[in-house]
Design a protein that fits this description.
By secondary structure, the protein is mostly helical. The protein has one domain. It is built from three helices and no strands. It starts with a helix and ends with a helix.
């Protein structure tokens, strides 16, 4: 945890423009990483569907299933 606190302190000691730039870079990289995770999940889901590991649902079935999961 000390490394984290030291990092935060170092960032807070930066000039405002540098902090803004760092924040923008971190947010863009985080978005890119998330996009890659979503793409990877999509590829796996497509492969699982092709292998018959996933069941196709009608829209109504999917909504009912989601509602059931939400109630738990």
């Amino acid at each position: 945890m000390s490394d984290f606190n030291e990092t935060v302190d170092a960032v807070m000691n930066m000039d405002p423009a540098s902090r803004e730039m760092l924040l923008e870079i971190v947010l863009k990289r985080q978005s890119e990483m998330r996009r890659k995770e979503i793409a990877k999940d999509g590829i796996k889901a497509k492969a699982d569907y092709g292998a018959g590991k996933l069941k196709a649902y009608t829209a109504e079935e999917a909504i009912n299933r989601l509602n059931t999961l939400r109630q738990k």
